[in-house]
Amino acid sequence: MKISRIHLFLLSIVALVLVAAGGAGEALAQVSVNINIGPPPIVVAEPPAVVMVPQSRVYYVPDIDIDVFFFAGYWWSPRGERWYRGRSYNGPWVHMAPSGVPRAVIYMPRDYRGRYAHERHIPHDEWKRGYDSWDKKNWNAHRRWEKEREEEWKKHKKHERYERERDRRGHRDDDLRHHDGR
Prior knowledge:
Blueprint: H1 5-20, H2 24-29, E1 50-52, E2 59-60, E3 69-71, E4 74-79, E5 82-86, E6 93-96, H3 103-106, H4 112-115, E7 121-122, H5 124-137, H6 139-168, H7 172-180
Antiparallel strand pairs: 1-2, 1-7, 2-3, 3-4, 4-5, 5-6
C-alpha cells in the first residue's frame, strides 16, 4: 500500500500535535465534554395570555410561576442570575449575556405582578393580531416608561448598596446612635 504525500503530511501534523500536547495518552486525558441543555422548558397547555405593561412595549405572562416577558420580537426569561431568550413562548431558549438583554426587560419593576395585576389579560390569538398596532401606539410613551423604570431600578440598587455597606460595617451607625443617646 502506497501512502500519498498529502496523507503523509497530515499524519506528520497529527503526530506533531500529539507530541506537543505531551503524547497521545495525555492528549486524550485532556478532552472534556460540556453539554448545555439550557433552562428547564416552560410548559403551558396552550399559548399564554399576556398583559401589556401600560405605556410600554413590554408584555408579561401572568398565569405561570416564572418570569416571562415579551419585548422587541423575543420572549425573555430570567432564571436565577442567567437570562434566556426565545423566539417562541415555549422556546427553544438560548442563554444571553446580561448586556444582550434589552433595558426595558432588565428594568421591569420587581413588583410588576402586583403593580399591573388589574391590567387586561389579552388572549394569545388576540394579542398576535393586535401586537403591531399596540407596539406602534406605545412607541413614544415607552421611552418615558423605560427611563422612569431605569431611575427606579438605580435608586433601588443604590439603597441595596447602602444596606450592604451598612451590614459590612456591622451596623456601626446604629450602635453609635444608641451610645450617644439619640
